[in-house]
Sequence to fold (548 residues):
Amino acid sequence: MPPTQFGLLDWIILVVYFAGVASVGPLFARRNTSTESFFVGNRQFPAWLLGLAMFATSISSITVVSFPGDAYKAAYLRWLPNLMLPLGVYIGSKIFLPFYRRNRCTSAYEYLESRFGHGVRTYVAVCFIIGQVMRIATILYLVSLVFQQITGATPYACILMGGCVLTVYTVLGGVSAVVWTQFLQTFLLWFGTLVCFVTLIRGIDGGIGAVFATGWADGKFMLGDLNVATGQLEPARVVSLWEKSVVMLLISGLAGWVFEYSGNQNVVQKYVSAKNPREAFKAIWICCACSVPTWTFFMFMGTSLYVFFKQHPDPQALAILTGEGGAKAESILPYFCVKMLPTGLAGIVIASILAAAMSASSASISGISAVFLTDIYHRHLVKGARERHYVAVARATSCAACVLMMGGATLFYAWSTLTLQDLGVKLASILGGGILGVYILGFLTTRGTGRSVAAGISVTLVFSTYMAVIEFANVTPEQFMNALGCSRETALLLMKPVHIYYVGLLGQFLTFIVAYLVASLFEPRRDLTGLTFWTQAPSEEEQAGRSN
Fold:
C-alpha cells in the first residue's frame, strides 16, 4: 500500500513523541533496585494516577483501531460485553481484589498455591503469559497497520519499529515508568481522538444528525453482525447458544470482566500498588467511569467513518469495507487520519493511537515479567538469590516478551477473518482455560484441592481444544460423516455444539462443576481459614483505614 499524505511536521511530532516515551525508562531505571519497586512501585501510587493507568491498559489499539473498524464494517453486537464492566468491577472489588492487598501479593496467582497447590498456580500463570503474549501481539499488529498506512513500509519493518521503542521504556523503567507513561498517554489519546472526531463530523453533510440517520437506515446501530455469506447486516437473536446472541454476549462479558478483576495480573498489579485499600478501590472505579464511555465513543467513530465515506466515496475506503485485496477493517481510522487530516493534526492523532497501543502493551509486558518471576522462576528455578539478580531476570523476561510480541504480530497477517475484534473474541474464549471457574471455586466454596481442580481443567482443555480444531482447521460435515458413520444432522451438531464465542464461558462452568463434584465425592474437607471469602479477616491496613 503506498504512503498517503503525511507531512514533515507530522513526522517531527512522532519523533518527539517516541523520544519522550523512550526517555521515561532510563529516568526510572535507577529507582528499580528491588522487585518490590520494579513491579509495584513500593505500593505508593495514588488513586487518580492508578485509575487512569488502568484505563490506559484497557484502552489499547484494540479499542482505538479495532472498535472503529468493527463498527465501520459491521454493527454494534460486539460492543455489548463492555456494558457489563461496572457489574464486573463491583463483584471483583467486593470479593476478590481485597484479598491480594491483605496478603501483600505481587502476583495474582500466589493465592492459588495456598488454596490448591503449586501445580494450579503454575498452570494459571502459564495461561496468563500465553494470553498476554497473544494480546500484545494483536496490539502491535494494529500498530503496524498505522505505520504501514503512513510509510508504505513492509509489515515486518513496522512491527520491528514499534516493538523496539516499546521495549526500551518498559524493560528499563518497570511499573513506575509504565504507570506514568500511561497517565500522560491517556490525555494524549483523549486530545488526539477528539481532534480526529471533530474533523470527521465537520466533513459530514448534516453532522452528527446525519450519522444517526444514515447509520440507522443502513442498520449500522443494530445489535447484529455481518453475514459473510450474503454480505448483509443481520440482527442477532436474543438468546442462542449456537449463534451470536444478545443475552449470551452480555453473560460472557460479565464473566470476562469478573475474571479481569479477580485473576488478571494487569489489574491486580496496579491494585496492590496503591497507597492503601481506599485508594485502590477508588482507582478501579475511576477506570470504570472512563472506559465505558470511551468504548462507546470509538464504536460511534466507526459509524461516523462509514457515513463519511458513503458521502465521499473513496476506492481504498470501499476496499476496506468489502475486504477487497485483503484490506483490513482495522486500517480505516489510520487511513482517514493520514488521508484527510491536515498536516500537524495527522501527526497528533497518529501519536494518540500509538499512545493507546503502547500504554496497554507495556502493562501486559510488565505483568508477564511479574508472573514469570514470581510464580515460575522464583518459585521453581532459583530461590534465595539477591534482589539485583531478580531485577535482571525481570528485565530479561520483558525483553523475551517483546520478542514474542513481534513474532506473534507477524502471524496475524496470515489470518483471514471478519474483523480482528471478531478474531480476538474467539481466541480469548478458547484460551480462557477455565481460570475463572478455579477462582470461584477457591474464593466462594470450601471444596477443592489441586487434584479436583486438575480434573476440571482437563475436561475444559479437551473441550476447548476440540472447539479450536473445529473452528480453525476447516473441518467439514463430510469428514465427520465418513469418520463416524453418522448422519449429516449429527455431524452438524458435533461441529457446533455451541458458538465459538461461548466456549470460554462454558469452560468456566465445566471447570467449576467437575472440580466441585470430584472434591465433594472423593476429597475430605480441610481447614481453609483465611483462604476463602467467608473466612477472611480484615488486615491491619484495612482496620486502620476504617478507624480513620
Q: What stands out?
A: Residues 129 and 261 are 17 Å apart (CA to CA).
